[in-house]
Design goal:
The structure holds two protein chains of two kinds. Chain A is mainly alpha-helical. Chain A contains ten helices and two strands; from the N terminus they run ααββαααααααα. In chain A, α3 crosses α6 and α5 crosses α6. Chain B has two domains: about 45 residues; about 250 residues, Orthogonal Bundle (MetI-like fold). The chains are: A mainly alpha, B mainly alpha.
């Protein structure tokens, strides 16, 4: 008798718990949009901060984040795709391959602040890059690598084996097959993975704390060895280190960062969806 | 499907093909090198502290860098406290959501839930920390009547939500890998779907769910910005249950907050890298254990 009722109640409970997970997410986004939107205007996005950051815009932080993300991409994308091609196309199931996979899982699990320490020790001090865009990009790139490798490998593996067989039966070498057939077919998946990886890099604060970030630097960087402001660090600074910061400016900054990250997230999802529908295998 | 261009292109000479393949191999191995390199640099900058401060001092209960007292115990316990509490909150939420999404929810509900959870994974931790500071902490303060809302508990709530996307997606995979025959057998015995789920499917997926918990824990213990902004940052020993509603200080937050003002080569500098070593080793083993479980499952092609 009550078994059916128990099931109904149980399912309803599960649904409620799922709401408990999802609703706060929507609240976070809703609150930040509602409170941040008032601060955002053209001037906020395109001018230098002044008056102890309480006035003016956040242009250098936006530019800094874009430059850091670009730098991260320049380093992480070739290495990441190369690593993925190795794992998907060359590696056999040996002890060494398993060690590589283990290394990737562990890289993905290293706390972001530990990446910050590493970047400080290796790039800032040992290589004497100083606190700079270069040091920060390299640090972020290493942190992003496992994301790019795993998603790119998945995309490469999804390309049917027949494609490779046909390529080699036409006399193509393994690399020709990879370059002309496998990679282009896997490209949408790889791009999605790259965007998702770079998003993480763009939003990270801890790895750039000691490697790039400038507390207050109202000018644009002119070389890779310059320091720069960056959006995530700027948000941290104005919300914890600057007394009397107007709340609307804080929420505005949070909204710009959130908007940047989420819109790219949506782009990645759309690319994935579009090509998944379009491909014929 | 091979593009016609493939035939027109001049074949690469053997030499450059060899070069490229070698390069790809090197890139493939690079990840191992990077893990070693990271550990090496942490050791290089952090090892001296073990000679500068006696071991008893390092694990004493007071962290006062200005007086050259570097007892890491309150920080370690702070991290453990916040992480465990986060998992206690996240585990039921995560498992129930994974079960709902995989086993119960109609298609339309699934297609709303999944993207929202993915969005959560994409929100930068500093944004969540900021939200926790300006929205959650005042709420906690008012509800609990605590003097400040910046407590271990507030931090754990934020951390729990940060661990949820990982936890849910790995738990979903675990449920997914339970063979359909298990469900059929349960239903054929006359059990309801509800009974089948809780007495057959979830127990069969428990090792995968354990992996999910471990990965979530790894994520939570290494989280920095949100924790630093929300837990109140007082390096005191968590001594009783009441500590949950007082400020604490984690290992990650300590590094982030203090490294900026430290002179290179000082004991304090070495001590912060020493904490980095502890964090590295801790997450290394957590992930090793989780990875082992994942790889084993893949090789046996199914359960357990």
């Amino acid at each position: 008798m009550n078994r059916a009722l128990a099931q109904k109640l149980g399912f309803a409970l599960l649904g409620l718990v799922s709401l408990l997970v999802v609703v706060p997410i929507l609240v976070v986004i809703g609150v930040i949009v509602a409170r941040g939107i008032v601060a955002i205007n053209w001037q906020f996005l395109t001018t230098m901060p002044h008056g102890g950051m309480k006035e003016g815009g956040i242009l250098p932080a936006i530019v800094g984040t874009l430059l850091l993300t670009l730098g991260t991409a320049l380093v992480a994308v070739p290495i990441g795709i190369g690593g993925a091609v190795y794992l998907s196309e060359y590696a056999r199931d040996t002890r060494l391959t398993r060690a590589i996979r283990l290394a990737i899982v562990n890289l993905a699990g290293i706390p972001s602040i530990v990446y910050g320490l590493f970047g400080l020790g290796m790039f800032v001090l040992f290589f004497r890059f100083g606190t700079s865009i270069l040091a920060g990009s390299l640090t972020l790139a290493i942190m992003t690598l496992p994301v790019i490798i795993s998603t790119a490998e998945e995309a490469l593996r999804a390309v049917p084996q027949e494609f490779r067989t046909v390529s080699s039966s036409l006399g193509g070498t393994r690399w020709q097959g990879i370059r002309n057939i496998v990679l282009p077919q896997a490209l949408p998946g790889i791009i999605t993975g790259v965007i998702l990886g770079l998003l993480r890099a763009a939003g990270e604060t801890a790895p750039i704390l000691f490697t790039v970030a400038a507390f207050y630097l109202p000018r644009l960087p002119s070389s890779p060895l310059d320091q720069t402001m960056a959006l995530p660090y700027h948000l941290y600074v104005i919300s914890t280190q600057v007394p009397g910061m107007p709340l609307s400016v804080q929420y505005g900054t949070a909204l710009v960062l959130l908007g940047l990250v989420l819109s790219l997230n949506i782009v990645a999802t759309l690319i994935r969806g579009y090509f998944r529908r379009k491909r014929q295998w | 499907m091979a593009s016609p261009r493939a035939r027109e292109r001049i074949p690469l000479s053997r030499v450059s093909e060899f070069t490229i393949e070698t390069l790809i191999r090197v890139l493939g191995f690079s990840t191992i090198g990077l893990v070693l390199l990271i550990f090496l640099f942490l050791l290089r900058e952090g090892m001296p502290v073990f000679f500068e401060v006696p071991l008893r001092g390092l694990f004493s209960s007071r962290w006062y860098p200005t007086f050259a007292i570097f007892g890491a115990l309150p920080l370690i316990l702070g991290s453990i406290l916040v992480t465990l509490l986060a998992i206690v909150i996240a585990l039921p939420l995560g498992v129930a959501t994974a079960v709902f999404v995989r086993e119960v929810a109609p298609r339309w509900a699934r297609e709303i839930l999944k993207p929202i959870i993915e969005v959560l994974a994409g929100i930068p931790s500093v944004v969540l920390g900021f939200f926790g500071m300006t929205f959650v902490a005042p709420l906690v303060r008012d509800v609990l009547g605590a003097p400040t809302g910046l407590t271990a508990f507030s931090g754990a709530i934020i951390l729990a939500y940060m661990a949820l996307p990982t936890l849910i997606s790995v738990a979903e995979d675990a449920l997914d890998s339970v063979p359909k025959s298990y469900r059929d057998a349960g239903l054929a015995m006359g059990a309801t779907r509800w009974q089948t789920i809780w007495r057959v499917v979830v127990p069969a997926a428990r090792s995968g769910i354990l992996t999910a918990v471990m990965l979530g824990m790894g994520r939570a213990i290494g989280e920095t910005m949100a924790v630093m902004m929300v837990t109140g940052n007082a390096a005191v020993m968590p001594s009783s249950l009441a500590s949950l509603f007082r400020p604490v200080r984690t290992m990650t937050a300590t590094i982030a907050a203090e490294m900026g003002e430290v002179a290179r080569g000082s004991t304090h500098y070495h001590a912060l890298f020493g904490i980095g070593i502890i964090l590295f080793v801790l997450t290394f083993f957590i992930n090793l254990a989780a990875a082992k479980a994942i790889f084993q499952k893949k090789r046996k092609g199914g359960l357990r």
